[in-house]
Amino acid sequence: MSDWVTIQSYMYPNEASLAKAKLESLGIDCFLQDELTTQVVSGFSNAMGGARLQVRSDRYQEAKDILIEGGLLKDETIHILNSDDYEDETICPFCQSENIDSMVRPKGISILIFYLLRIVFIFNRVDRCNDCAKEWKFKKLKKTNT
Fold this sequence. Notes:
This protein is of the alpha+beta class. It has helices at 13-25, 35-40, 45-48, 60-69, 108-117, and strands at 4-10, 30-33, 51-56, 78-82, 100-106, 123-129, 135-139. The chain is globular and about 50 Å long.
């Protein structure tokens, strides 16, 4: 028997119920941890970690793919692409759309520095396609001789 793993935490139990219903309709066993607690004490939902949708570990990837495809879970993957492989960095490398935005995000260490020193100076540039919703960043990757 496999263990239960959290696939997503939801601040609002109604969002979690939609995702749960989708998975159950496709025959995937799942349950909501702390669903009733977040309904009764909604002000502390984030502090408790929200309502956690859990699935069996052996069906995790299948459930995640279903929720992403159904728009109930955002794909948080930021793809790292070799900038030498792409001539035009102004189009989406996945769907070739020109409808992209560049976002500047602080690196993890800069968040710590901000809280300690109130200075933010380390940022990452991430590109996002508004059509296919994928995120990526280009880096100069070293070529390996294989």
